[in-house]
Amino acid sequence: MFDSVKSTIEGLATQKYIASEDIATTIYLALKMEKPILVEGPAGVGKTELGKCIASALGMDLIRLQCYEGLDESKALYEWEYAKQLLYTQILKDKLSAIMQNESTMAKAVERLSKEDDVFFSNKFLLPRPILKAITNKNKSLLLLDEIDKSDSEFEAFLLEVLSDFQVSIPEIGTIRAETKPVVFLTSNNAREMSDALKRRCLHLYINYPSRELEERIVSLKVPQCGEKLRSDIVRAVHQIRELQLKKEPSISETLDWAQALVILGINDLTHDVAVETLNFILKYEKDIDHAKKHSKNIFVH
Amino acid sequence: MGTAQDTSAIQTKIYEFMDVLKDATINISSDEVLSLFNALPHISLLDKSIFKQTLKTTLIKDFTDIPIFDRCFDEFFAGGDDAQVDVVNAFREMNARDTVRERTGMSPEEMAEMEEALADFIDGLPDEMLFERSPEEILNLLLDELAQSESAGGMGQMLFNVRNRNRAATGRGSGGEEEAGDMTDIRNALAALIDKRMSSKKIGTQIRDREEYLLNKPIYQITPEEIREMRELIRRFGQKLKNRISLRKKRIKHGGIDIKRTLRTSLQYGGVPFKIFHKDRRIDRPQLVVMCDISGSVNQYSRFMLLLTYTLQSLFSKVRSFAFISNMVEITPLFMEMDPERALNSIFEDTSFTYGWGSNYGRCFDQFMRDYSDSLTSKTTVLVLGDGRNNHQDPGLNSFIRIRERSRNLLWLNPDRKHLWNWADSIAYIYHDNCDEMKEVNTFLDLSEFIDKLFLDL
């Protein structure tokens, strides 16, 4: 476990994740207070990556659940293995009739059978899905609920029990409580607003595009072959491009792609012409590229 | 933080800050307050940026509120780069409190009650007073008010006690001068408390007032600088509107039977379709056709209308927009390709809208029916934004009526005051009688309210 904001930054750095002080503060507090973290921010700033890095930095098991529209309890929480149950009843047919042999009436037979209910609705036939897995895991685990905004509001509602009490209720068995509380990490792209109830239970973290200095460090870490000058040129250009009014701003992953591409092309200097030719690595719309080209004289000074 | 006194000073400070946030219309629930105080022991208060992030991460759950939070924080905790200065400030306040307590001999409960009364009094003051009067003046005002209402509950009683105690002290013959000094001390201390309370109240109020002012300002009076200032505001406002509407749209279950899923699940039961699954019914998102007059007299409105429409684009299943002066041109592709702001600017630079001179509604409606009538379906809501000043030309009523017949509803937003609707070359009432509703819009709030209502009626 991290024991200060500083050690959080260092811990994440060992996983090649450069965290700002703000990010580290929230992570540190969430871990200390055992609260879920809700991370929002534009696409491609490393929200999911952050979750993965926390898990590996602290040696936790990463359990990931990608949310989507129509995701329901049977996919996220648990499911009874009906097929297995059926199969077992078939196999145990003889055994069952042996047990019920002595019962004279139908009613008594049913009563007798219902005493065996537990056999069929026990952990043996329970298929744990990510959330239940995270709760029952002996090791400390990190439950990454990716793109929670894509799920339905019903799904959000039953998440509440997990988020506040770290427990899951299964009608046939009862409530399963976590022995080692998992770290819950939610990411959202703001496709829809999360309910207040959910937000209240979480610490909130908004990750924006990083500062120039931070982004340069990220590039140097992820694309170490990239020379210092090229690196600072790339990052400066990207930051200036973000200032333009574009349909889709380049995010960190695009910066990294660009740096990688330029290194592969064996380019050491980001000259105006090179930059304009490779703009398609960071901009994804034709009009955005045109727009950037129009301003290229100011953006690429070399 | 060491002693109990330190802690309580910081607590008071934080509660005051939360009041500032509330004044700036950020809602904070008790859960969040609780988690903030749970978080504080884990961090060092002396590191200001960590302290700030702690407040932010526990209190602010809506990222659109972050800019407001930042401004409130920076103003409230101004005065130094580290929190140490702020702690010192908190102590200065404590001193003022101590002075009052020592000189009056009030119990801590009485003190708390008095401070609450002070806060109430200041909350009750109209905003202008907050900005114009000095703390001393406010104090006098408070004392005057108390003097007038002798029976003024706890507060009056307390100050009455203060006076009595002071008199008793004089009675013991401890010298008039010292007594006068006492009173000034108390006055100063009270004024300091009031000052503190007022300045923190100002921060939040200022932000809120500025926003309300901009949102309520008649659109045609908004200056270019203010438009720039409003950009962020519109984005935030649009986001909130979006959130509200998307929460309101509850998904309705029970569409048709989902055969695939039902069959797949039935396999678990040996082919017996035990559980029947229904398809979710799709949310009925409205289709929108926006026609904006962009001639000089109304282009400011059109600008806002289009901006708002495209901020909310994800709420509509389909938006097609057209701009016209005397020529109708479809501008939907522009918005597909670029950021709304930039798209808008390129529209207003374009000249293909003018054919002849001035707005010609009739010609444009005819043109619309001829070229773009495929955009109309029974689900389409048509919005026309314009002042109906047709420059004495043919109103094109036939086409207008056909537009109404072929769409779900036809609404008209008119930036002109209602009493001007038939004035000069305006033929607003001709259109008024032939559309579902004509509404006067003046401010940005009018516009957004209108869009909000659009979803209620569906």
The N- and C-terminal alpha carbons of chain A lie at a distance of 47 Å
Secondary-structure-based class of chain A equals alpha/beta
Q: Which oligomeric form is depicted?
A: heterodimer
Strands across the major sheet of chain B, in which order?
Answer: 3-2-1-4-5-6
Strand tally of chain A is 9
Strand content of chain A: 5-15%
Number of strands of chain B: 6
Structural notes for this entry:
The complex is a heterodimer of chains A (302) and B (458). By secondary structure, chain A is α/β, with parallel strands linked by helices. Chain A has 17 helices and 9 strands. Chain A has a 5-stranded parallel β-sheet, sandwiched between helices. Chain A has a two-stranded antiparallel sheet with strand order 3-4. In chain A, a hairpin with a 3-residue loop joins strand 6 (167-170) and strand 7 (174-177). In chain A, helix 1 packs across helix 2 (21-33) and helix 5 packs across helix 6. Chain A is elongated. The mean pLDDT of chain A is 87. Chain B has 458 residues and is α/β, with parallel strands linked by helices. Residues 169-180 of chain B have low confidence and may be disordered. In chain B, helix 8 packs across helix 10 (176-216). In chain B, helix 13 links the parallel strand 1 (287-293) and strand 2 (318-324). The interface between A and B is large, with 41 and 39 residues.
